[in-house]
Amino acid sequence: MRIIVIGGVAAGAKAAAKARRIDASHEIIMYQDEAEMSYSACGMPYVISGVIENERSIIIRTPEEFAKQGIQVWTRHRVVAIDAAKQQLTVKNLNEDTVTSIGYDRLIIATGAAPIVPSVPGITLQGVLTLRSFSDLARFKTTLTELQPRHAVIIGAGYIGLELAETLHSLGIKTTLLEKSLRILPKFDPDMAQLVHDYLLENQVDILLGDGLAQLNGSDGKVSAVQTETGRIIPADLVVVAIGVKPNVNLAQAAGIQLGCTGAIAVDARMATSISGIYAAGDCCETLNRLTGQPTWLPLGDIANLQGRVAGENAAGGDALFPGVLGTAIFKTFKCAVAITGLSEKAAFDAGYNPVSVKMTANDCAGYYPGKQVLTLTLTANRNDGRLLGCQAVGSGKVDKIIDIAATALLGRLTCSELENADFAYAPPFSPVLSPIIVAASLLS
Ligand code: FAD
Ligand code: NAD
What sign does the dihedral 427-431-432-438 (CA atoms) show? Predict the structure, then answer.
């Protein structure tokens, strides 16, 4: 059987590797339109800051390593059409500008997502960047060297914006975040988002809310200022556009594959699309929110890997299920970690729950132990039955630990009174005698 994978970064690379592990006899071919493949985009902000010295270290596996596993990889090859009736693909060799056809028995679409780039005047000026692909990373680094920017404006105060605010600040570049919404981090409760907002201001990052990009001004072909929708002019010799991503669905849609209500490819729990024999995984497809039971689109690297694994197994003849997501995410800006799992209070209310929340600030280890750090967490539960619905945590303390405990509790559908008596590891360097999440749960039970 021949399995073809379209896209070779996170979901595609994982799907191909899993398919190979399930059955060594299948022919597996992966097409990737970029020159590089199987890289961690998540590591890019740290390459730009210099925390990661060698940019090639974010490449997880090379085509040669895939070849050793019996997976053929064709980089700089773009699949331009899927003929689902004939089970055939049209593939363009981007190096030689030639086109060929190839048949498949099973197909995995892992075409990912692309940055949203508004078509405003000046968008092509030198010094205007996005960050998504490996070539974006190279362009980012070259631009920093060539332009030696002093003032950056990041359009969009989302995950990339807040991670890059730290990166650019660490490079001595004065940074302004321009955010269209009236607050940053709309998936978080307003008071938790405000903590992050205040923290960024303390770190000399300027934030302009409720205003969007109107146009970019330039001189000598280089960007010189951002003009906002309300007419502000912000001088800038570097502009990063980070206003979100959209799923790459054109290829699938043209082949007659159904999209879901989020605009991404609709799949079932086996990652199967609406056309038999065709699977999808990663940022190009939607999934189920396990708390609301509704389709959701959560373009994250860990989800892409989990889904890729399931798509690869099923394409190879296995029978795996991806049960959906909780909405867990984490990022870091300066020394502050920011994380969420499950539903915010508003999302819980919108989903028909009767939510109640508690917010507390605590040390992340014994108060007397050197090096203790602080974190603030919000726990949200359903008032009717005490079931945990969500958790958000912000601070320099061990936010990741709190969020992963909460995510596990959500998976187990625990109530706050069950969580309140959880038997967690304790010694002074690791935790207060009662974990902050136990204390918060006790306040809700
Ligand atoms: P993609 O990474 O988009 O890969 C799809 C690939 O397929 C692309 O190379 C694309 O060019 C190629 N392709 C598309 N169409 C075709 C075609 N027709 N033929 C051939 N090839 C095609 N997520 C986290 O969970 N945690 C993080 O900390 C995190 N940090 C991030 C930081 C940054 C700066 C960025 C940009 C993203 C970050 N993410 C993070 C998100 C994560 O990188 C993505 O969710 C993940 O890369 C999705 O993988 P994917 O394989 O589905 O899609
Ligand atoms: P995002 O969706 O996180 O944030 C985009 C922000 O831009 C939002 O706050 C939005 O309100 C704002 N915006 C939209 N239009 C605007 C406009 N015209 N002017 C000004 N602001 C505008 O998207 P992103 O930061 O571009 O990141 C893309 C994706 O990459 C994320 O969705 C996430 O899935 C992934 N990512 C994840 C991590 C992580 O998990 N640590 C880190 C980086 C990126």
Answer: negative
Please state, rounded to an integer, the average pLDDT across all residues of the chain: 97
Measured from the Cα of 116, ligand 2's closest atom is 26
pTM as predicted: 0.98
Query: ipTM exceeding 0.85?
Result: yes
For residue 282, give the ligand nearest its CA.
Answer: 1
The set of protein residues with a Cβ atom below 6 angstroms from ligand 1 is 6-7, 9-12, 31-34, 41-42, 44-45, 78-79, 110-113, 131-132, 160, 248, 251, 282-283, 299-302, 304
Taking a C-beta distance cutoff of 8 angstroms, is the pair 45, 167 a contact? yes
Whether 261 is catalytic is no
Judge whether residue 295 has pLDDT over 90. yes
Q: 243 near 263, Cβ under 8 Å?
A: no
Give me the DSSP letters along 239-282.
EEE-S-EEE--HHHHHTTPPB-TTSSBP--TT-B-SSTTEEE-G
Spell out the alpha helix ranges (H) of 397-435. 399-411, 416-420
Q: Taking the alpha carbons of 408, 438, 399, 196 in that order, is the dihedral positive or negative?
A: positive
